[in-house]
Design a protein that fits this description.
Largest sheet: 8 strands, parallel
Strand content: 15-25%
Number of helices: 12
CATH architecture of the largest domain: Alpha-Beta Barrel
CATH superfamily of the largest domain: Metal-dependent hydrolases
Low-confidence stretches: none
Structural class: alpha/beta
Radius of gyration: 21 Å
Mean pLDDT: 96
Number of domains: 2
Shape: globular
Strand order of the largest sheet: 8-11-12-13-14-15-16-17
CATH topology of the largest domain: TIM Barrel
CATH class of the largest domain: Alpha Beta
Length: 470
Amino acid sequence: MSRSTMVQIHGGTVVTASDTFVADVIIDNGKIVALTAPSVSPAGPSLEVIDATGKYVIPGGIDCHTHMEMPFGGTFASDTFESGTIAAAHGGTTTIVDFAIQAKGSTLRAGLDAWHAKAEGNAAIDYSFHMIMTEANAGTLEEMGQLVREGVTSFKMFMAYPGVFMVDDEQIFRAMLRAGELGALITMHAEIGLPLDILIKRALGEGHTAPIYHALSRPEIAEATGTERAIALAEMAKVPVYMVHLSAQRALERVMEARDRGLPAYAETCPQYLFLDEDYLRGEPGNEFKGAGYVATPALRAKHHQEHLWRGLRNYDLSVVATDHCPFCMKDQKELGRNDFSKIPNGMPGVETRLHLLWEGVTQKKISMNRFVEITSTAPAKIFGMYGKKGTLAVGADADVVVWDPNKPKKLGVDTLHMKVDYSPYEGRVVPGSPSHVLSRGELVVENDKWVGKQKKGRGQFVRRGTFNL
């Protein structure tokens, strides 16, 4: 399909977070201008029609947790903003929110400028940034206001990774108070890092070097305690808080208790915690190191946690499914930790497979179609200040639209996916549905798993986000 002014997505079933109905979606100049009965055709010689008969029409996915080109453990995440956003589009995601990093001893401004330089002119779909704060001093607290005015309205802080990212409770609390003044949102990596550091050193001291010890040295209680602590700090500061990559039952219970008390506590989980478990970290007989491909933080949990996470999604205790996409190749990257599990770069590829996997949850009746749309697009748009522009199919919204074919299975694997990594955690898994068409701001960019947009590199735009207003 060539680029045109007006597009009609015809004959499909529109699915939003709240409604399901048959309608045509009319797009003009990159915006949705009408939702009409299928019999109504807009006038105009430049009209192009996408046939969505027998398919679902949904808002483009928003992955609010990615790490393109992220430095970690002496290497960098293997996906660039170009390759990672192209892969995202192939999987039905049309906006990402990546994490800019403040280096220790540096400024928020320097970190944000560095990430703008990575993304601008390279990203294929729209993007925004969270800001990782490694220090909350007078200077950075002042800078938070500058970033919020520029549309970077969320800040991430870590209780883990001592000496690299970890900040103490005083700094977290100061940042929360400042975020409350600005209408910003603090997101938390909630694992208590100092005790984990001791467990890691003890395991290595006992000669345990295999990838499975990544999980065995990061127990569930560390995440549950960190989650409780983060919620307590937010409650004292009277501000909302958002837990990234929640993986386990007891951490979820802390969020449930807070939400039952009416606190604005939000949490995301990730596909790896819904579909994979810690046994993958054990590798194979004779090849224990294969488990390195499944090293991420928090660690994969025992299989029984999956049931609790799915229930959390159904019951609105978990708000979002994002990916924590942070890929490293087995060769030359994961291999850095062949003789020391603590040196395995933490992260897995996932930006392309999120919607595929979660649709499997729909077919298995673990979540509804409307909830599928909500957790992959609408909720992240609302929580992170993009709703109205992104995350919905409504007049005036950006025409980020996916035509989803429920009868188009796909076999996942390194040869069928587009992420810049030499393995897939889901190698050989057949998922039941796939996008047939992906539009970004009204331009058809992917059709039947082929890039058809006129431009890849640099067509994505920076999204200035609003302040928190839920």
